[in-house]
């Protein structure tokens, strides 16, 4: 579904999920885990992330510029460095809140 250039996903949640698993965009799976998806284990699992970070704005800030919130993090500032567009950051947040 994510790789279908002729029929890309239309909803924000699915688009955000595609960014999360994309090796050329978010590449979240290099560090984080989601059940059933080949993934890393050096960062917290993404399952139930909304229980750890219930505030949507805080979750967005974590993805957009994690070092601003925690200078010791190894998570890159996806939004600030232009790895993801602001729209992609928003869609990743929408996806993560469904886990």
UniProtKB/TrEMBL annotation:
GO molecular function annotation: electron transfer activity; heme binding; metal ion binding
Alphabetical keyword list: Heme, Iron, Metal-binding
Record keyword Ribonucleoprotein present: no
Pfam families to which the protein is assigned, alphabetical: Cytochrom_C
UniProt-listed InterPro entries: Cyt_c-like_dom (IPR009056), Cyt_c-like_dom_sf (IPR036909), Thiosulf_SoxX (IPR030999)
Gene3D superfamilies per record: Cytochrome c-like domain
TM annotation in the entry: none
Domain Cytochrome c as annotated: residue spans: 11-99
Protein name: Sulfur oxidation c-type cytochrome SoxX
Species assigned in the record: Candidatus Muproteobacteria bacterium RBG_16_65_34
């Amino acid at each position: 579904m994510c790789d279908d250039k002729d029929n890309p996903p239309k909803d924000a949640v699915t688009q955000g999920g595609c960014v999360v698993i994309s090796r050329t965009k978010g590449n979240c799976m290099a560090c984080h885990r989601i059940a059933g998806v080949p993934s890393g284990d050096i960062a917290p699992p993404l399952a139930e992330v909304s229980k750890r970070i219930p505030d949507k704005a805080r979750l967005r800030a974590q993805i957009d510029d994690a070092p601003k919130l925690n200078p010791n993090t190894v998570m890159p500032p996806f939004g600030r460095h232009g790895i993801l567009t602001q729209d992609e950051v928003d869609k990743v947040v929408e996806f993560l809140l469904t886990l």
